[in-house]
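Here we describe the complex-level prediction in full. Unlike the single-chain runs in Section 2.1, the three entities below were treated as one system.
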Amino acid sequence: MEGIHLFDLAERQARWLSVRQQTVASNIANANTPGFKASDVVPFADTLQKTQLTMVATNPSHLTDTPAGVATVELRRDQVQTESYSGNTVSLEQELVKAGDVNRDYSLNTSIVRAFHQMLLAALKE
Amino acid sequence: MISSLVSSATQQAISRLGEAVSTTVASTATSAPAGSESFGAVLGKMVGGVEQSLGNAEALSLRALSGGDVDTRQVVDAVMSAQQSLQTAIAIRDKIVQAYLDVSRMAI
Amino acid sequence: MTDPLISALKVAASGLSAQSTRLRVVAENMANAQSTGNTPGADPYTRKTITFSSTLDRPSGADLVRVSDIGTDDAPYTIEFDPSHPAADTNGYVKLPNVNMMVEMADMREANRSYEADLQVVKQARELITMTIDLLKGN
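The structure predicted for the assembly as a whole is:
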């Protein structure tokens, strides 16, 4: 149902989480690619406040926009746990932990949506 | 969100029937014993609880979806509680509608 | 635009493929660690190397991985004195492959680790897709 803030927010978070999943997948796949820099999505709160286009325009060298509308950014120095001789900054442990976070958040997201959706259906039923 | 749906469907039915019953009771019986409440008041409280329960569940869910620092168990408990309240309110509404229809069909 | 969850599967699949090829190269090196030439002074088996590079998947904006090169290691061969060997040169020295078993074992372990991690991603992306579709069930 349109116009319900809860469902709208849930859809946005789900999209943000799936872009994060894709980013984690890329990091893991390139764990052995020489010089590859690991990246992550921008914080969810940032995607709610400003439009992505504005963000990418003001930080062209740091943010990369994705077709899904959620920007990604390379890990900062303080976020990088290991760096290989070739300059690869992927840490498999770090990425797998992130993957676990995504899984948990996504699971809660779909559970909340289902619960409220069913409540809505029950209230509408004669 | 959902309270708007529940309000219109349930609250009206409940408050009207509650009124009808209270006026009937007041005209025939002695005053209610100390500690107990009128039918309408009790039903009104049950429905009022739904709105609060739903609001709480919605607020916690919004926090959780925004990535806020909220205990998962808290969110789940709040949503379950809201589901229970809603189911109760709907069951009461259905029973009231049924009772009203039965009463209106009674031969006088 | 591709659904990010679908492209996550595609990315992980590219990882599985790349690591598989890497494991194949390592296996080849290990199997030929003692393979010398047949004629006097001939070169032995030369260690193979593998290089990965990332490629951009335009529809999703994700970085896939691919094998960009399978080359040879130009590190010097090991020399052993064995005049009776068919590949011994005029001074009695035999050239042995420039394969170091410890290096190959370490490489294999790392490739396996990466492979398992990619597999985890596949499993998880599939789970997330299932969770989404299951929203419609049980109503």
